[in-house]
Write a structure and sequence with these properties.
Number of domains: 2
Shape: flat
Family: Belongs to the transferase hexapeptide repeat family. LpxD subfamily.
Strand content: 25-35%
Subunit structure: Homotrimer.
Largest sheet: 12 strands, mixed
Helix content: 10-25%
Strand order of the largest sheet: 8-10-13-16-19-24-27-30-33-36-38-39
CATH superfamily of the largest domain: Hexapeptide repeat proteins
Catalytic activity: a UDP-3-O-[(3R)-3-hydroxyacyl]-alpha-D-glucosamine + a (3R)-hydroxyacyl-[ACP] = a UDP-2-N,3-O-bis[(3R)-3-hydroxyacyl]-alpha-D-glucosamine + holo-[ACP] + H(+)
InterPro entries: Hexapep, LpxD, Trimer_LpxA-like_sf, UDP_GlcNAc_AcTrfase_non-rep
Structural class: alpha/beta
Radius of gyration: 27 Å
Number of helices: 4
Protein name: UDP-3-O-acylglucosamine N-acyltransferase
Length: 342
């Protein structure tokens, strides 16, 4: 797929300095640019590369004025970084713009979907499934009975959506994600064995939710595991049954959240964080990577450590912790002097 500088400038509402007819078909870093590629310059420390790059087109800020001769065609915009991001979104939209039903695939007679959907080969669509307009389902996806997927949602290859789940508009579910598997519910019986507690609820993803590759979200025991609007989950995250995650919260990879915990809005949770069950995490909370949360957290707290506590206090404590052998040695020497030992 090729685009001219004129076409790109039209999408970005930018000004061209150079050849408006030059074409590009791929993207590149400015330091690795080659003929036929498009790049951008936003960070001033990369400015020297604009004089040596072989990229055919470079997006720059309107304030940029070259100090030496350049070969690349410039497209000048208000914000080069935002414009390049906008172009990536446009590129993805064009790349993913598939329509139709590929074969072989299985679609239940009771499923409902419009002409604008894409259903990739080897996909299974169960009974009473409803797919909204412009839904894209890539190959090898499983969609269980009574699932609803709203408009403009994309589900990448190999994802699994179990029965009864509800997926909102403009969601992205990446490969290997599993939405709606049974929660980890078992109860001990008279024999000392563990019997499974039926998990009869579902998972609800509201609009504009992104789910990373390999992430798992368990269905509720009763009711719903609820992921609110705008939540972004990284790869390989475990969300247990009956968890609720508030609007616009972002969570990094390998985090695990135990059952029935409620997380507020606009939180930022780092990688490999562990959160115990039945907790309430407030709004605007920040949790540093590899922390362990075992208590309720108030709004706007910033935490680190396992068990976690205030981030500033953690940093102060770490200064003492890393010097602990020296501190213990000094204390022992003082005790000897006080006790009169040689």
């Amino acid at each position: 797929m090729k685009f001219t500088a004129q076409q790109i400038a039209g999408i970005l509402e930018g000004d061209i300095v150079g050849n408006p007819d030059i074409e590009v078909s791929k993207l590149s870093k400015i330091e690795e640019g080659m003929e036929g590629s498009l790049t951008f310059l936003a960070n001033p420390k990369y400015t020297p590369f604009i004089y040596s790059t072989k990229a055919s087109i470079t997006i720059v800020n309107k304030s940029f004025e070259p100090e030496h001769a350049i070969k690349t065609t410039l497209i000048k915009v208000e914000d080069a970084y935002k414009s390049f991001s906008k172009l990536l979104e446009y590129y993805n939209m064009v790349k993913l713009n598939k329509i139709g039903v590929e074969q072989p695939s299985f679609i239940s007679d009771s499923a409902k979907y419009g002409d604008s959907v894409y259903i990739g080969a080897f996909t299974y669509i169960g009974e009473n499934v409803t797919l909204g307009e412009n839904v894209k389902i890539f190959p090898n996806v499983y969609v269980g009975d009574n699932v609803t997927i709203d408009n403009d949602t994309v589900i990448f290859a190999g994802a699994k959506i179990y029965s009864e789940c509800i997926i909102g508009k403009n969601c992205v579910i990446n490969s290997g994600a599993i939405i709606g598997a049974d929660g980890f519910g078992f109860a001990p019986n008279d024999k000392g064995e563990f019997s499974k507690v039926p998990q009869t609820g579902n998972v609800i993803l509201e609009d504009f939710v992104d789910i990373g590759a390999g992430t798992t979200i368990d269905r509720a025991t009763l009711g719903s595991t609820l992921i609110r609007r705008g939540v972004k989950l990284d790869n390989q995250i475990q969300i247990a049954h009956n968890v609720e995650i508030g609007k616009n919260t972002v969570i990094a990879a390998q985090t695990g959240i135990a059952g029935s915990t409620k997380i507020g809005e606009n939180c930022m949770i780092g990688g490999q964080v562990g959160i115990a069950g039945h907790l309430i995490i407030g709004n605007g909370v920040r949790v540093q990577a590899q922390s362990g949360i075992g208590r309720n957290v108030k709004d706007n707290e910033t935490l680190q450590g396992s068990p976690s506590f205030n981030y500033g206090d953690w940093n102060k404590s770490y200064v003492y912790f890393k010097n602990l052998p020296k501190i213990v040695k000094n204390i022992n020497e003082l005790e000897k002097k006080v006790n009169g030992d040689n």
